[in-house]
Amino acid sequence: MLGLDAREIFFQQDKIILVEGQEDVVFYPDIEKELGLKFEGTFFGWGVGGAHNMHVFARLLADLGFMKVVGIFDRDKEHIVKELERQFSGFLFLAIPADDVRTKEARGPTAQKIGLLDGGKLRFDFEKDTRELVERVNKYLSPDP
Predict the structure, then answer these.
(1) Among 5-9, 25-29, 55-59, which is the least confidently predicted range?
(2) Beta partners for residue 73, in sequence order
(3) Contacts of range 88-94, beta carbons closer than 8 Å, 24 or more positions apart
(4) What 8-state DSSP symbol labels residue 143?
(5) pLDDT tens, 82-92?
């Protein structure tokens, strides 16, 4: 069942940004602040519930007639980008330059993931590529001339 934030999609005009999960929705404003940039779209709810669900929400939005939709994946899910670009040729799908939105320490059998944010700050080595990603999203979402 869709939560309140996700149901608001039915009242949006366009310019929807799909991200993998809740952490992405929470931490992208920190990245915007670090870069001094703002995404021009609206983040969908609390994410799509994992990269494997992105196609479901892209299909829903395509069927509802949305024209300007962006899907942002973590780098370790970049292989999904090409497939979704083929399925939804009018939408924009991208991967961030890191394996996650924030660095996560190793836990049990799960290895450490280096993220865009490390200790709440954007990692210098990802700043240029992240800036370019936000600018590319904004260019795509801007009104056509």
Answers:
(1) 5-9
(2) 95
(3) 88/58, 88/59, 88/62, 90/62, 91/58, 91/61, 91/62, 92/136, 92/137, 92/140, 93/54, 94/70, 94/133, 94/136, 94/137
(4) P
(5) 999 999 999 99
Count of domains forming the chain? 1
**Taking the complete model, does pTM exceed 0.85, yes or no?**
yes
Amino acid at 35: L
Q: Which residue has the tokens 């608001």?
A: 8
Q: Report the DSSP pairing between strands 42-43 and 100-102.
A: unpaired
Is the residue at 2 inside a domain? no
First to last CA, the chain: 38
Is 8 part of a structural domain of the chain? no
88 belongs to a structural domain:
yes
